[in-house]
Amino acid sequence: MKGGIVIRSLFITGTDTDAGKTTAAALLLAYLKKKGIQTAAYKPVQSGAEIIDGVLCAPDLEFYKLANPELAASTTYLLKKPCSPHLAAREEEIEIEIDKIIEHYQRLSRENEFVLIEGAGGVFVPLRDDGYSMLELMKELSAPVVMVARTGVGTINHTVLTAERLKQEGINVIGVIMNQMTKEDTKVEQDNIRMIELMTRVPVLGMIPYLENPLSAFGDSDMLDHLFSKLMEVDSNE
């Protein structure tokens, strides 16, 4: 594959709802565009749809397209209420069918060199009223997983718990991307990274610096290389 890419798909999950998954996904899409990798971005379920120019749109997909305007970006279920997908689907009387999500993902995999999947919230966000969660979907899709975690105080607990449960379920967690959402104490951040690697036995692959305007980073080749070159060389079969 072009650009030395080893893995062909990646599932981005977060340690909590506001960890910065969508920013990390968009930056990775900008990196893949720079590398000339034919990529599809897939958000299986998007709640909190927005009306743009009179059309109901998925906000995360619209953000991806700022990183790559030619990107093939899609979702299977677009829900209006900005809440957990199971509740939004219930209120709209929509049944989320997992088979449809799997078929959509498989089609994207056949048609593209790389598929980037972004989950909704953290691993236990329910997709259906029967308790089927993002965790079960991650197992079904079988893509290697990268966790996005905040850099600041409290991140060790969230990240270690998420990593341990994913590994218990046999999910291939290939790394962590740290996200500097605010200007934190550098000493605290660096120690958080050290402890996360020690306690999870999962490598921290990079850190997104604090960005007042993430759009400005899409064209920053040096930053994108620093963030993702190590990630995209990981052998997902290890």
Quick recap of the structure?
With 238 residues, the chain is α/β, with parallel strands linked by helices. The protein is 38% helix and 21% strand.
Descriptive account of the structure:
- The protein is of the alpha/beta class.
- It has a single domain (2-233), classed as P-loop containing nucleotide triphosphate hydrolases (Rossmann fold, 3-Layer(aba) Sandwich).
- 38% of the residues lie in helices and 21% in strands.
- The protein is built from eight helices and nine strands.
- The protein has helices at residues 21-35, 59-67, 85-91, 98-111, 134-141, 155-168, 186-200, 221-228, and strands spanning 9-14, 39-46, 50-52, 55-57, 72-78, 114-118, 145-150, 173-179, 204-208.
- It has a seven-stranded parallel beta sheet, sandwiched between helices.
- β3 (50-52) and β4 (55-57) form a beta hairpin.
- α1 (21-35) runs parallel beside α2 (59-67).
- The longest helix has 15 residues, at 21-35.
- The protein is globular.
- The mean pLDDT is 91.
Set down the secondary structure blueprint.
Layout: E1 9-14, H1 21-35, E2 39-46, E3 50-52, E4 55-57, H2 59-67, E5 72-78, H3 85-91, H4 98-111, E6 114-118, H5 134-141, E7 145-150, H6 155-168, E8 173-179, H7 186-200, E9 204-208, H8 221-228
Using brief descriptors, characterize the structure shown.
238 residues; alpha/beta; Rossmann fold; two-stranded antiparallel sheet; 21% strand
- The count of strands amounts to 9
Helix proportion of residues, in percent? 25-40%
Q: Summarize the helix and strand pattern as letters.
A: EHEEEHEHHEHEHEHEH
Which of globular, elongated, flat, extended, rod-shaped describes the shape?
globular
Q: What integer is the average pLDDT?
A: 91
Tell me the CATH architecture: 3-Layer(aba) Sandwich
* Strand order, sheet with most strands: 5-2-6-1-7-8-9
Major beta sheet summary: 7 strands, parallel
Overall CATH class: Alpha Beta
Distance between the termini: 18 Å
CATH superfamily label = P-loop containing nucleotide triphosphate hydrolases
